[in-house]
Amino acid sequence: MNLKTLLLGTCSAALLCGFANAETLTIATVNNGDMIRMQGLTDDFTAKNPDIELNWVTLEENVLRERVTTDIATKGGQYDIMTIGTYEVPIWAKQGWLVALDNLGADYDADDLLPAIRSGLTGEDGKLYAAPFYGESSFVMYRKDLMEKAGLTMPDAPTWEFIADAARKMTDRTAGINGICLRGKAGWGENMAFLTATANAFGARWFDENWAPQFDQPEWKNTLDFYVKLMNDAGPQGASSNGFNENLALFQQGNCGMWIDATVAASFVSNPKESTVADKVGYALAPDTGLGKRGNWLWAWNLAIPAGTQKAEAAEKFIAWATSKDYTKLVAEKEGWANVPPGTRSSLYANADYEAAAPFAKMTLDSINAADPKNPAVKPVPYVGVQFVAIPEFQGLGTTVGQLFSAALAGQMSVDDALAQAQQVTTREMTRAGYIK
């Protein structure tokens, strides 16, 4: 055998060995636009890491939450990387269910992460247990042309009274225009994210200082009455089935005068390739009622590593890639600066190219900074969280209450019945869990 043949044989064997030893990372993620975009750009990662292959499990938001929670709690080991929210990270880290992200690389620059976002992902030991892919608050997205047609001017900081009046005036059902689109789909992270944040502005709270549920108080009655009446007068048909993605599609198609939802939606409603109203969109802070709290939340979709994986090193490489400054530059290069994942890094909001391309940038940052998870309500509360309550029981409770409130929106029960049942089930579960003595 000559030297050339020997070398070719050795190279072939090494190549085959390389393929045989390639690790496959199974990544569970949500079917939001930024995550779909990331999947389309992962050739950049695999080119730099040819020994790592990626297997995507992309799920609707409620389904994703259910599956990853079940998997991590039962140590199922189906996933090597999970997309989880700000709610889960501190709870799961405390349980020892997540791997600390200690090796994201010398150039990762964790200090560049926005303090409001980073603090929610840091464990009691000061370590980062998830890396934010994008961060968000919520705000008003509205049609400037329809606002002008209604003879109104949107303030930068509107009240709920103004929003309701504008929504009714902008509604033109014969033209297929609903004055306002709001979440109605049941789920602790769907309709209850919106309604809990809105309730804060109305002076309501989930629990008093002694963990007694508060759905029997007038503030919740005012919140839910206002919401159901507004949606009946100015919302789309079938609103009780609409979550983030459904309302996004309605707004992009020109069927909503206003939409109050995640700030991350701004890049999609203002993208002329995806939105028929891209050149007509304005932005304002989430509404208040004059009590000192706005209805804006604080959230991040994050990538985390479950403690049960055998592929933590490879998983951390992917997370470092997907949440890095270089990934932001990659998206800007391929899709334009307006479409980079927002709300995670201070450097993005100091970037003149981003500021020029994203008219929503300042309002997004202002909304994120305005959210106060430690003091979310007008009255004192014993919990942390703006649109959720950071206790393990909230996932089940929030979804159950969300089903009741969705039924009230659909006209299947009265507001009073929905609140009474919410009070009953929440009191029972909190007593069972030992919060109420």
UniProtKB/TrEMBL annotation:
Localization, UniProt: Periplasm
Signal peptide start and end residues: 1-22
Record-level GO cellular component terms: periplasmic space
Keywords per UniProt: Periplasm, Signal
Statement: the UniProt record of this protein carries the keyword Transcription regulation: no
Classification via CDD domains: PBP2_TMBP_like
Nucleotide-binding listed as a keyword: no
Highest taxon of source: Bacteria
Alphabetical list of SUPFAM superfamilies matching this protein: Periplasmic binding protein-like II
Family of the protein in this entry: Belongs to the bacterial solute-binding protein 1 family.
Listed name of the protein: Sorbitol-binding protein /mannitol-binding protein
Native organism: Shinella granuli
